[in-house]
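dumping this here so i dont lose it
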């Protein structure tokens, strides 16, 4: 069943993209923010 494996791969790809985007977004937020926000986020 190639369709099922393709959907599974697509789902994994989307999850990985979300995780990478979240890490990148937090990194940008840490670079732009002040010390209080950095302490809260734990940068």
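and the seq i came up w/
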């Amino acid at each position: 069943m190639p369709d099922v494996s393709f959907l599974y791969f697509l789902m994994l790809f989307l999850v990985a993209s979300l995780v990478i985007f979240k890490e990148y977004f937090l990194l940008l937020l840490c670079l732009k923010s002040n010390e209080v926000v950095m302490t809260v986020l734990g940068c």
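The chain has a mean pLDDT of 85.
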